[in-house]
Structures are given as structure tokens and as C-alpha cells.
Amino acid sequence: MRTNILVSIICISVTTLCISCRQVAPCPDSRPTTAILGAFNKEIMMLEEQLTDKHQQQIEGMRFVTGRLQDKSVVVAWTGIGKVNAAMTTTLLIEHFNPDQVIFSGIAGGVNPKLEPGDIVIAAETAHHDMGILGEDGFYNRGVINPLDGIRNPVFLLADEHLLKLAEKAAEQVELEKIKTSVGERSPRIIKGVVVTGDVFVASTEKGAELREKLNADAVEMEGAAVAQLCYQRQIPHLVVRSISDKADTTARVDSMLFQEMAAKNSAALIVKITELLSSQHPVSKSGDQEK
Predict the structure, then answer these.
(1) What residue segments make up the domains of the chain, in order of their start?
(2) Distance between CA 219 and CA 211 in Å, rounded?
(3) CATH number of the domain located at residue range(s) 30-279 in this protein
(4) Residue 240 φ/ψ region, left for φ over 0, alpha for ψ in the -120 to 50 degree band, beta for the rest
(5) Cβ-contact 248, 110 below 8 angstroms
(6) What are the residue numbers of the active site?
(7) Could you say which residues of the chain have pLDDT below 70?
């Protein structure tokens, strides 16, 4: 009898201990949440420093920080470099936080000859520059089949119209760090354009000119179109914003190291202003329309 009682006590104790040690899944926040992702960790840290009511958690080894930015509920995460890392982080975020919109930010190489380090491209369109068909007659871009609906994705993935308009409005209001040049300081330019993505750091004048000619690209980077494709397939409004750190030419590696912090500050400043405008708007539904 005593033995049975002792065994029962042990079983109850072990069960209680297991339950207390189990990781509790985060409770979904009923407030509309904006996801802010970036491949450049310094920029993400800049944004995290401005969060209030901040909470951090690990999901599958990835760090996510929730809080409020400009009185807007947000979740912020660093994706790491490359399309696979960006898609992995975005998928985890969507599954666990169910964001109403996704904003991806960071630095990029400028292939538009009018752009200089510190300037910003708000992507009206993104595209994979390394996705398509390579044959004897050369390479041409082509989207892949969306496994969710069986329809082929377009080459160019359009930004959410509402977020794009907010970004353009934010561009008119934001104060950015001045760019130092050999002839003095200048104010950064912010343009609406095309951002292309590939799993390669472009440091080639020839390749940059090719991307400009074939895809009308303004900037090239390594993550944006992967996030845009995922959001397109999941029907989640998205926006990609890139600050120029180099000109994707033979000096790109040196220039990127030299200008990346300034470029990140400007990109972060624009993201904060966009979030401020979002907080004053009606929530955006996942179809891209404002909720009434």
C-alpha cells in the first residue's frame, strides 16, 4: 500500500515538473502587428533600442523581439544574409506572430548610376535576378510555381499599395543623416524603384550594368525578393526598403564597410517614420485593404 502511494507521488511530481519546464507558446496579440525584418544586424539593433514594452523570445534558435514602436505593435527580427535565411526567418515569424504586414529593410548596392551611398530605394517591385532558365541562348528570368495555388509567380513582385503610399509620404517627412562628400554635405535621395535579389554579393560594374539593363534595377541585394515572394504567396502585405551602401562595382566590398552604418541609420529612420504613420492609420487587413 505504502509502495503504491509512493509511486503515485513520484509520478505526480515528475508530471508536474515536466509541465512546468515545457516552453509555453506565446499568446497571440489581438492588436494588429507589423513585422520588421532586416539582414543587417546593426540596423535591427537600432530599431530594437527604440522599442517600448519590449519582450524577447527564441523560436527554433532565432531571436524575435516584440514591443511598440511609435505606439505601433511590432515584432522585430534579424534574418541573416541570403534568400534561404530570410525565407526561414520570415516563415517562423508569420507562423508564430501572424503579422498584418511585413516590412523588410537593410542595405544594398546601387546599380542606378544616379544613386550614391546613403540614398534609399523604396521597392515598388522586387525580383529574383538569379531565378529563371539558363539555356544555350542565354538566361532569362522566370517565376516559379506557387505551390499554394499552382499558379506561376510573376517575375516582378509588387509592393503593397497602401504601404508604398505610406512610405512615399514618410519620405517627404523623415530627417536623414547628411552624406559627406568631397565637395561638402548633401541630403540623401529617396526614390521609388526596382530592387533585385540574388544569392551573391555583386561587386562587378559589368554585372551591375546588366541588372540595370535587363531588369531596370535600381538596387541589388540578397534577401528582399525572397521575403516578397513568401508574402505574395501567403497574401500578406509587404514592403522592401533598401539604403545604398555601395555601387555594386569593383570597390563595393570596401565601400560597403565604409558606408554601411550611415546607410543603416537612414534606412532605420525611414522605417520608424513609416511605422509612425502606420500607427495613425486604420489597421491594414491581409488583403491589403484598410479595415473600416
Answers:
(1) 30-279
(2) 9
(3) 3.40.50.1580
(4) beta
(5) yes
(6) 43, 246
(7) 1-31, 182, 282-292
